[in-house]
Amino acid sequence: MTLPPQPMPTSQPYKVVPIHNHRELMDQCIALINSEWPRSYTARLWSLESSKETLPTSFVLTTSVKNETVVLAHAKLSPIPADREAVFVESVVVARERRGQGIGRLLMQEVENHCFRTLRLQKIYLSTIDQQAFYAKLGYQLCSAINIFGSRPTLNKSTKKTWMFKSAAC
């Protein structure tokens, strides 16, 4: 049985904040996302500017270095039109030099808190090509592909990705 997500310890030098409340972090966030999945600056900016209190929402995990806020990780949550009680974690990225330090886990805990406690959603879905073990450690289970775009529950049959979910009941 997986324990429910807990708030991030305040002794940690990290903060998780929605990007729409911290527009000054947009350029850093774009650079971080593009370091993993290159796209145009304009496309990334448009995506981040769509972040809001409901969905879609983009979160950044930050720390302070010499009194300057530095973006270390990002996660984007998107609605699933066919399932109003669920969310799709569209992307999660941690700065390469900070991987393996628990930052992804902290970010996902905050994402889960937001989804299950604030938005009162029942399920979180995601897909991954190479991070199944990471998400399994966080309590995510394998599932069939889902439709993340339209209003019909037609399955998305991407062959490269592994689909996973976590329920609020876990």
Automatic annotation (TrEMBL):
**What Gene3D superfamilies would the database entry show?**
3.40.630.30
Residue span of the signal peptide, if any? none
Q: From what organism does this protein derive?
A: Anopheles dirus
Extract the GO molecular function terms from the UniProt entry.
acetyl-CoA binding; N-acetyltransferase activity
* Database matches in InterPro entries: Acyl_CoA_acyltransferase, GNAT_dom, NAA80
User: What sequence ranges are listed for the domain N-acetyltransferase?
Assistant: 17-169
Q: GO CC: one term?
A: cytoplasm
Q: Which PANTHER family match?
A: N-ACETYLTRANSFERASE 6, N-ALPHA-ACETYLTRANSFERASE 80
What is the protein named?
Answer: N-acetyltransferase domain-containing protein
Q: Which taxonomic lineage does the organism of this UniProt entry have?
A: Eukaryota, Metazoa, Ecdysozoa, Arthropoda, Hexapoda
Pfam families per UniProt: Acetyltransf_1 (PF00583)
